[in-house]
Amino acid sequence: MFRKLAIVALLAAVHGQAGALGAGDIAFTSFNADEDGWSLVALADISANTTIYFSDNEWNGSAIGSGGAFNTGESYHQWVSGSSVIAAGTVIRFAAVDAVSLASSVGTLSRAAVSGSTNYGVANSNETIYAYLGSSASAPTSFLAAVTNGDFSVDGTLANTGLTQGVSAIRLNANATSATPDFGQYAGTRSGLTSFADYKTLVNNASNWTVDTTNGTYINVVPDTTAFSISPVPEPSENAMLLAGLGLMFFVIRRRLA
Fold first, then answer.
1. Cα–Cα distance for residue pair 29/203, rounded to 1 Å
2. Coiled coil located at which positions (predicted)?
3. For the chain, which residues make up each domain, given as ranges?
């Protein structure tokens, strides 16, 4: 009985941590400089009324709380997830972020009130977008993901963000470093893995993306918002566990009688 209660308490504690997001718990799944939008997948549950900020200002590379800051000249957005938990695997689209009617498929997207914000669109070259938690749009406390169509060593940086290219950040032109894509979309598998965390290295690998380097027109392209799913390893049934236990007891009795 004690063991059952302990398991229930452990599960409750884990469930209660839903939405305590960290690096890689969300991942970009599309980038569209023509339509000025992007999409991302939740790779962990997102608690109700979570606020996530986005900025295409470049991070200066210093540590948070020790001189770390964004530069100026570009923009900030904030997204509030809504009144319900967003389940891991959900794909969320952010559209026309430079327009008055900017929108998200879940929750509410708006422009963050930061003095000097401008250029609310997504650039078709040398652009980096960071997603993060913060005490305000200009004061990040924890970086979650990043995407660039340039180079993280030039167009912003991942230094002191806790993000890693290929794990929690995606460089779209990683396989063609001279190109500056204006459109990219994850084209890999979205089902069959045993945990959502297993998708991190797939989604952040440019080899699994369809990336345009010809400056085509994608203003009317709607990104794939198919949800991600997992196939957990099945747990032993109660009958199977009972039979295994009886088998072990029979083996012990035989040993004692031998």
1. 7
2. none
3. 14-257
Question: In sequence order, what E strands does the chain have?
Answer: 26-32, 37-42, 51-55, 76-80, 91-95, 103-104, 108-111, 128-136, 139-148, 169-171, 183-186, 209-212
Q: Which amino acid is at 211?
A: V
Mean pLDDT computed over 112-140: 92
Backbone dihedral region for residue 42 (phi beyond 0: left; psi -120 to 50: alpha; all else: beta): beta
Q: Which residues pair with 55 in a beta bridge?
A: 76, 130
Is the pLDDT reported for residue 14 higher than 60? no
The pLDDT tens digits of the residues spanning 181-218 come to 999 999 999 999 999 999 999 999 999 999 998 878 99
Backbone angles phi, psi at 218, to 5 degrees: -125, 20
Is 148:156 a contact under the CB 8 Å cutoff?
yes
How many other C-beta atoms lie within 10 A of the C-beta of residue 228? 23
Q: What is the CA radius of gyration of the chain?
A: 22
Identify the pLDDT of residue 213.
81
**What is the rounded distance in angstroms from the CA atom of residue 213 to the CA atom of residue 201?**
22
165: helix, coil or strand? strand
The residue with tokens 């991302």 is 40
